[in-house]
What does this fold into?
Amino acid sequence: MIAQLMALMPNSRLLNLLIFLATALIIGAALYMEHVMLLEPCGLCITQRVFVVAAGLVCLLAALHNPGATGRRNYGMLAAAMCVAGAYFAIRQIWLTYLPEDQVPACGPGFSYMLDNFPLMDTLSFLLVGDGNCAEVNWRFLGIFSIPELALMGFVALFSLCLFQAFRREG
It folds into this structure.
């Protein structure tokens, strides 16, 4: 049964390209939400986007390079590490959304304002820790899943594919 499933999987080069395309779709959806639905991304949302892009670029590089087994493992593990980091920030944002209202951190200024008026280290801290804006849930998919919950599901799926790439046996 497993051998039959493995036979259906595309080769590693094509799967890396498909993972890259999936990350491009994820970023496209995030940009649609930002620019069409007018949902302003918080610091943690921006950080998660960075890790989606990083995982996608690693997989694109792997598809272009088409390495042997050792390179496939290295690319797969590096992309999986990007997914773990992104999942951490999604989990942090989910945690913030479920905090009681009196424990939510205060809201800070927007990201672009911070870039223009604050030292770089303060802006990076904002991206890595989040603030009260990150606790707001302005939209839910099907009325059930918030954006960080969807992001976490995406990171788990990407992580699984990247680990598969890292440890697959291909001739």
